[in-house]
Specification:
This protein is α+β, with helices and mostly antiparallel strands and about 600 residues long. The chain is about 50% helix and about 15% strand. Strand 6 and strand 7 (about 185-190) form a beta hairpin. Helix 13 packs antiparallel against helix 14. The protein is rod-shaped. The relative contact order is 0.08.
Length: about 600
């Protein structure tokens, strides 16, 4: 029975593997979605309106630069940031930006919206004294708002403003343009051939400016001296009558020397440091703290994204239908078969087509249900056989006892002998069933030890030689040498007892029984070969079933319970070996026991 089950299981799982249709549909649907996603991404990239985002981002950049320029100018007139709060509020109102000033230690100096987050990506370092590149000449210069000691007070501004007004009035149409430096000094530019009109007096440094120029000259020369470069004789305001710069500009005398220009710039930075606020971090965000909203895009882009999402959802629904619907149909069919089987219909089968998504699961269920049905049939047959085997001796005992009660039976001695024989038969049946159950459950107690199976075989040969001779059967023991095993000798002898007694029982007079043993491939192979009646091919798979004894012609009454071969195979498996049968009807049988050989230490 167990052999039938294992053979059917192997037959059910054999065959070439194939790609499940579910996997193929899944891959096809996945490929469709990938292609749709890639195509949609390209379409969105080509058609989305970036001008909305670009304009918003560009406007933010312009406003941020406006804020930073204003803060540089403010820093050039203050030696610290403690009073910048009111200026930040005005700038925030003008630009719509949230502004926060944080010092190098992370302490917030002022913040127009302290409840908003301060993202690192929106934080910029503002160093008022960091040189900037001139957009025209690319030369480095200080920001326009950094005047340092060149800043004029109100009286000086008023004085120079009056002089500038007189110059402009004098020049008339010869005025090219006018400007006011960040330090407060007004500048008037005229044509080259225009009269002076007081421009020389206007361009003459004031005493405070002269002091600042002398200090700057000394700082520049200190730098040049350290660089081993020629010193300068003076530092002047760059106020050429016809083309004065629009911001505070200085020049060395002599001019045109790169080391001198570099030292002059550094001298200006050092000079202005005492009157300029230090470097800080400036956080510039929108009114949400730069948190991205779900609709931060142009209306056209949002509409295109919506169309793309709808298309993708439609394709996903189609893909789900292609994948899930056939599988659900197969699952419902399988579920129906399971419900029928659980309700007691042992003939219920899923019978799914070979190309079905759940064909493998359905085939496994069908194999399982078939095996369970076979088990139940075998169980019913086994119970019937046990009942039959026990009913016969019980019927005999009852008949003899009733006959004895009626005075028609045997004498007491004969009755006791017959009753004991039948009771012994029932005891053998129940004992064999118990032993077989323990072996199959793995609960059989084994006493393994090193032994030589050749010794056991010789002893069995001698023990059965007289029985064989009494029935005119030749018994031969053929051994190739020692047969080392690590096993339970008693259980091994029990297996061979069953095989030898079975062979002698089914071998007619004049026949032969051979007991052979060899060691090969790390196995000890012990075979019992007879020249008896053999077993029909249809019966051979069932020879190890419980209580199976083949055709009635093969059974010699009272000599077998039909459990010997089942017990032999169960013990062989408990010992870690195998027991197989080969037979041909009319030619004899071969039962071969294979056990792992003991490895010499």
């Amino acid at each position: 029975m167990a052999d039938d089950m294992s053979n059917s299981r192997r037959a059910g799982t054999a065959g070439p593997r194939r790609v499940p249709r579910l996997l193929a549909r899944y891959l096809a649907a996945g490929l469709l979605l990938v292609l749709a996603s890639a195509g949609g991404t390209v379409w969105l990239a080509q058609t989305s309106e970036y001008r909305y985002d670009e304009q918003a981002s560009g406007a933010d950049l312009v406003r941020d630069e406006q804020v930073l320029d204003a803060l540089r100018t403010w820093a050039g007139r203050h030696d610290g940031w403690s009073d910048v709060g009111s200026t930040l509020l005005l700038l925030s109102q003008e630009t719509g930006r949230r502004i926060a000033v944080v010092d190098g230690a992370g302490t917030v100096i002022a913040d127009t919206a302290p409840e908003l987050p301060r993202p690192a990506a929106s934080t910029r370092l503002l160093d008022p004294l960091e040189p900037l590149g001139d957009p025209v000449t690319s030369e480095l210069r200080l920001p326009d708002g950094i005047s340092g000691p060149f800043s004029l007070d109100d009286a000086q501004r008023d004085q120079l403003t009056g002089q500038a007004a007189a110059v402009v009035a004098c020049l008339g149409d010869a005025v090219v343009d006018t400007d006011v430096w960040g330090s407060g000094r007004p500048v008037v530019n005229g044509y080259d051939d225009a009269p002076d009109c007081g421009r020389a007096a206007l361009n003459t440094p004031l005493p405070s400016e002269r002091v600042a120029l002398d200090e700057l000259r000394d700082r520049t020369n200190a730098c040049l001296l350290a660089a081993n470069a020629p010193l300068v004789t003076d530092v002047e305001l760059d106020l050429s009558p016809s083309s004065a710069p629009a911001q505070l500009a200085l020049r060395t005398v002599p001019t045109g020397d790169d080391p001198a220009d570099g030292c002059l710039l550094q001298a200006r930075i050092d000079q202005a440091r005492a009157t300029t606020a230090p470097a800080v971090n400036v956080v510039l965000t929108d009114q949400r703290g730069d948190a991205q909203g779900p609709l931060d895009a142009s209306p056209g882009s949002i509409a295109r994204v919506g169309v793309f999402v709808v298309v993708l959802l439609t394709l996903l629904a189609v893909a789900a239908a292609l994948i899930v619907v056939p599988t659900l149909r197969s699952a419902r069919r399988l579920e129906t078969a399971v419900d029928r089987f659980s309700a007691g219909d042992r003939e219920a089968r899923a019978a799914l087509p070979a190309r079905d998504d759940l064909a493998g699961v359905g085939a496994a269920f069908d194999r399982m249900s078939g095996e369970i049905a076979g088990h139940e049939a075998s169980r019913r047959r086994l119970l019937g056989d046990i009942a039959h085997e026990l009913r016969s001796p019980l019927t005999n005992i009852r008949g003899w006892v009733e006959a004895a009660d009626d005075g028609l039976g045997l004498d007491d001695a004969a009755l006791r002998r017959l009753v004991l024989d039948e009771a012994g038969r029932m005891e053998r049946i129940t004992g064999d069933l118990q032993l077989l159950a323990l072996a199959e459950a793995g609960d059989l107690v084994l006493e393994r030890r090193a032994c030589d199976a050749a010794v056991i075989l010789r002893e069995l040969g001698e023990a059965y030689r007289a029985q064989a001779a009494s029935t005119d059967i030749a018994l031969h023991v053929e051994l190739s040498g020692p047969l080392p095993l690590e096993t339970d000798p008693a259980r091994l002898r029990q297996i061979l007892d069953n095989l030898l007694s079975n062979a002698l029982r089914h071998t007619p007079p004049g026949g032969r029984v051979d007991l052979e043993a060899v060691t090969a491939d790390d196995l000890v192979r012990i075979a019992v070969v007879d020249t008896g009646e053999g077993i029909a091919p249809a019966d051979l798979p069932r020879v190890f079933d419980r209580l199976w004894r083949g055709e009635p012609s093969r059974v010699r009454a009272g000599q077998s319970t039909g459990l010997g071969l089942s017990i032999a195979r169960g013990l062989a498996e408990a010992l870690g070996g195998t027991l197989v049968a080969q037979s041909a009807l009319g030619e004899g049988s071969r039962f071969e026991l294979s056990l792992p050989a003991r490895v010499p230490e």
